[in-house]
Automatic annotation (TrEMBL):
Keywords: Antibiotic resistance, Membrane, Transmembrane, Transmembrane helix, Transport. It is found in: Cell membrane. GO terms for molecular function: transmembrane transporter activity. Its main location: membrane. CDD domains: MFS_MMR_MDR_like. Residues 556-577 have a biased composition (Low complexity). Residues 556-583 are annotated as: Disordered. Coiled coil: none annotated. InterPro entries: MFS (IPR011701), MFS_dom (IPR020846), MFS_trans_sf (IPR036259). One of its GO terms (biological process) is response to antibiotic. This is MFS family arabinose efflux permease. Residues 19-558 form the Major facilitator superfamily (MFS) profile domain. One of its GO terms (cellular component) is plasma membrane.
Amino acid sequence: MDTKKRWIGAEHPRYKWVALSNTTLGMLIATINSSIVLISLPAIFNGIHLNPLEPGNVSYLLWMLMGYMLVTAVLVVTLGRLGDIWGRVRIYNAGFLIFTITSVILSLDPMGGGGGALWLIGWRVVQAVGGAMLMANSAAIITDAFPARQRGMALGVNMVAAIAGSFIGLVLGGVLAEWNWRSIFWVNVPIGIIGTLWAYRSLHETGIRRPGRIDWWGNISFAVGLTALLAAITYGIQPYGGHTMGWTNPWVLTGLIGGAAVLVAFCVIETKVAEPMFPLRLFRDPVFAGGNLATLLGSIARGGLQFMLIVWLQGIWLPLHGYEYEQTPLWAGIYLVPLTVGFLAAGPIAGHLSDRFGARLFAAGGLVVMAASFAGLLVLPTDFGYVWFALLVFLNGLGGGLFAAPNTALVMSSVPAADRGAASGMRATFQNAGMVLSIGVFFSLMVAGLAGSLPQTLTDGLTGQGVSPADAHAVAQLPPVGTLFAAFLGYNPIHELLGPQVLSGLPAANAQTLTGREFFPHLISGPFHDGLMVVFSLAIAMSLVAALASLLRGPKAAPADPGGEGGAAAAPDGDSAVSRGAA
């Protein structure tokens, strides 16, 4: 490589900080975009003149939510493996370029209605390819560049950016969507241009490149199986055949059974090929296996928290406290700032301290703190006092920050140097798949909770305002997923559910109450809390199981190399050498 064209050579003492700063920027921009759309959906659908609550438009809503995360979950392992073969920096740089170009295209959506939605969904899928390139190789580039005694700190900074990006996206999306929905894509462009030029000018291939062939059968079976499984789980929350959810839908069952079968076939394929994309032998190491299990469970719990807090704030708490529905995305982002602050406060510190004292207890302790915060949210009333809410979400962010960096250091330092790209991709796959799974798992649990009490609550509330029992019963029998999505998007659906004909037949005061700011939040607050009990109870269980998985120890081995390229080894007590500060 011609180092004359580079700012700092790979051998320069400061190169590792250049690699860290650029890859951290890449991870930040990639993960911000997994959540920035989440909180901006009302503004996006208004901007393209599409009603997301109409039955035919629910699919647009779901693919807006999960398309980006699904693609990154499917592709990160493949792109990590390609980084091992062709060069991690080469794949990473291409990812920055693709991400930047697609951001421009997304902001220029020329259509409205369903066409406008398809434009955004399609180009978000392409953007996710660029995001997956960044996610798959950033941790491997850092592991190559840093000596073992500093890897925990460096990976900690990178992972703080990765997970904090999903929190920052909530705040940033709320602010930008208030101004112009296209701005949530514009914001990527200058950052992307700077990051792309910086990456091409400054990053070097310092890792081990292992020539090899592409495992086409493994890649295809993994992509097909994981896509079918995750898509089926997501579509399972839609009503089907008179049922509140779609788990009896033949297409959903086909996706679940067929996806699982293809993934089993994928595992068989990977044991037969000479150069697998997904080296299953890495899971023989308890540290690698336990760290990835903890990543998956922690990601599901964290994703469920994000979705439930958005429903809670936008659909119930903010309207009850005087905020207009149009303003709720902005203020939901603002009121969730303590979550981000907690994560940013703990993440870098945990990464630094894990280099000195060991990563295992920090990772497990962070998950226990997260479980405690979920328990606190369980006992919080639906119409809470904000100080207690802020303290609990801050505590949740603090626990996530304590967990993320040490867990990543454990995973990445438990693998041989030549497999770091694939290992980085596997870790990102479990993290991104957890976010997609959280949509299906937690929305399903919430819908199940709502189905028990919402129909009677709707009937009583509507008839209490003069709606005829027949009309109230008809509304109450509608699938609760529509009500849940209305709360998620910050909509009041009563006007649409009853229709102008029913509303015009009511006294003006009653009609005004029904379509006002407080009736709908008061109506769903009780059933929502019933569902919340189930959701957060599962999140507590997942966090505690993940904490146990983080405590798994690997076999004893010789100390790791002091530089960036030695094989990963375990310290005598089972912590990875990177987390023990091996020199």
